[in-house]
Amino acid sequence: MNRINSRARRKLLEEASIRGASHGWILERTVEGGLSRFVSYHAVFYKNEELAVSAEQVRDVLSQGNLKPAQALKTNRNASGFKQKMPEDRLKLDPNTIEVKEGRVFVKIMGEKPGKTGSPTRTFEVIGLDEKYIILSEEVIDGKVYEALLFEILD
Q: Residue 55: in which H helix or E strand, if any?
């Protein structure tokens, strides 16, 4: 039972971090027995206001245009663990696409695939920013699949 409970907590923490939460409040833990044991958590995620990113900070970083894709993580509530990969090299982050909704900063990304035109535009929330990195998060499938992209800020 400990292994099943640990897996459920690990998945909760993975989702919280990919969605930009600094902490979470677990409202309920459900344990179902029988031949196949099942543990689930119902939680609310919060972000410390001191960690909030402003549109001006994001605009300053994106205007410099010195970003290198470093890592991509994807988590699925119905799958085991997160998946890690290298992001596409040809992602364009445009400072003119920055939007602020309910105090959260969003930016659109246009991905270019070699030999293809009209790649889709995706909207990501900026969940982290410091002098070395910017972290973006997207809800890929409503309430189920989330992806985070890490970009290195070059000098």
A: helix 55-64
